[in-house]
Amino acid sequence: MENVSTTGKNGHGNGSLQVMVPLAAVFVELRTLVTRAGEMALGALLEHDRTELCGPRYEHNEGRAAGRAGSTHGEVVLGGRKITVKRPRVRSKDGREIPLPTWERFAKEDPLTDRAAEQMIMGVSTRGYERTLEPIDVALKEHSTSRSSVSRRFIEATEKQLADLLAHDRWDITPLPGPACRSW
Asked: Please, which residues have CB within 8 angstroms of residue 180's CB and are 6 or more apart in sequence?
């Protein structure tokens, strides 16, 4: 614990700063713990999917339709950024990659695009986007926080919203009742 003096004019300290410094360190450690627990849970879910498709590890089964094919690195969204995680692989007997259902759900970019669009609408510049994210474990490799990545996501989200809006055959706009709308 870092000892920080909080002595006031009268020579008495309240000690609140002494509590805040270690509390900030606890929050960083807690965030790291939760992130690592999430990574472990994702790994367990992916391994469960692989076991469902291939059968238990080291168990020989001639009727098996798919086999374990090692692992590779993939990216999932966490806290407004992409992080690199280990992803198990499954191949069919004819060598085709079989996607894992859990990976298909977690690898979608929609939360990242929504987050970037929300931040831009709230007035955060693409230059300042990364500073709005909560810090994560330094051991994680993060991606998609650069100005150009955030800008691409914002454009993608607004283009989709505009296309959805223009897809309606007609606009059903009804004035609201009240004095401000009487001129309509």
From this structure: none
